[in-house]
Amino acid sequence: MSLTLMSGVFAHDHQIPVKYTCDGEDVSPPLEWAGIPDNTRSFALVCDDPDAPGGTFQHWAVYDIPPETTFLEEGFSSAGTPGRFPEGANDFGKTAYGGPCPPAGHGAHHYRFRLLALDVDHLDLPGKATMEEVEKTARAHMLAETELVGHYEREG
């Protein structure tokens, strides 16, 4: 079985509910995974928007997730309540989840939640690591990767 990432609130390639966006409560959606590769020692999770007008926009990075962890509950991370694992700084300038918030009238954007199974217990990163630093460092230790894509659009 290969690594898979799912959410109980949206299916792959479907709409992300408003609750998890800047138009709602802006809390992280529930996520769960299965098919963990042997020798996994930790996980990293990143979320970005490749459709942003200025290039890929970084929304969330969580790392040093223990290997026995198989889910992050709804609201694991939000601007006022960072999660219990280290988080990288996103393009909103916060070290917490920043939900979908595309420009109004810009069309549907695709939000890629990517889970990486890693061969190290923790990533050697500075306290204020950026999401880009988290992903680059994680990829150097990656055993497997899976992706869950959700859509969101704001009317103009």
UniProtKB/TrEMBL annotation:
InterPro entries tied to this protein: PEBP, PEBP-like_sf, YbhB_YbcL/LppC-like
Pfam families listed in its UniProt record: PBP
Keyword Hydrolase assigned: no
Source domain of life: Bacteria
Transmembrane segments: none
SUPFAM superfamilies: PEBP-like (SSF49777)
UniProt keyword terms in alphabetical order: Protein kinase inhibitor
CDD domains, per database record: PEBP_bact_arch
GO molecular function, one term: protein kinase inhibitor activity
Annotated NCBIfam families: YbhB/YbcL family Raf kinase inhibitor-like protein
Name this polypeptide is given: YbhB/YbcL family Raf kinase inhibitor-like protein
Lineage: Bacteria, Pseudomonadati, Pseudomonadota, Gammaproteobacteria, Thiohalorhabdales
